[in-house]
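TOKENISE THE FOLD
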Amino acid sequence: MGMASRSIGLTEIGEALKKAKSRWYSLHMAAASHAIAQRIPLVDFILEVRDARIPLSSHYQLLSNFPPSSLRRIIVMNKTDLANRSQLKEWTKYFEQQNCISYGVNSHNKENVKEFLNFLQAQVRELKRTGHSGHATTMMIIGIPNVGKSALANSLHQLGRISAAEKGKLKHATVTPHPGETKNISSLKIGSHPNIYLLDTPGILPPQIHDSEVCSKLALTGAIENLVGEKELARYFLAIFNTSDGYKKWERLSTHGNDKSFTGQDVEGSSGSKLDMKQRRQYPSDHTQDFMVNRVRQTLLESISCLDGNVQNEKDLEELIEAQFTALREAFLVSSEPGNDSQTKISAKLLNLYRTGRLGHYTLDPLPL
């Protein structure tokens, strides 16, 4: 990430979070922090779930209160489907060099979660082999809000129960799109022979975060919500997007004669475009439809191609982002009538496409030097 992309949007986001102070640290977070801290020394394994897009910025600060030698910690990089694949491999190597066990997972991919469960069971067997004397093994899954802890816990529970051929009512951890919604610590069985229990916990942020860039990344990925305006976050994303090279794979679309869209479907005018045309008629302004995503990608690509300047120059980058907002209004079919806050609507749609991986895969944290 270049210097220009780091500065665009950071000032506004930093100021917004300064005004908010520690409003993200609610009373239930404080109570949960105390309860989790009491249990950490009592469990056999700690599964620290981080967002694979921000493997450092999403670290769980509460763990710094415990000596590393006192914990059997596994760093779980979730949402690998949204991160840059090659950079994810570099992060795995980095954690290995730091003598940390790490594992990349996509909690919505059943096969991926199954492999992760096998990995955890192997860790437990190794623990038993070295003389661990308990009948059951306990693991605690921890992390900041919205890194997918509860979704992962539920997937592990379902797979563990099926593999053990156990009957009975499934016990679900609460999963919501809003950070900090898991209120209590709950126990889920994820394995038998040996018995493995997983404690699912609420997402916890530290009372204060002094680094404005870390705050910005947490807000962009959704760990901190409702404290920063969507327009500021969208500008921050566009700065990252414009100074990365992820869009270069889209350049083939600017050549005529290619009748395939970004998703591999036929585009309008080709023999297989009936489904696409039907979607256009039924969902003309739904930004999640493939044809709309393609239009947005094409718009962003063309705006960069037309830039008469350098994206590493902050002034040129500011001008490019303003031009992109103007072009995206048409791409998203957002009205520019007076009283209609078109920039907020554009920003919300753009952020949704980024957060669901429709505009590329980004790892926002650089590897430490």
In short: The chain is about 45% helix and 10% strand. Strands lie at 45-51, 73-78, 101-105, 136-143, 186-191, 195-200.
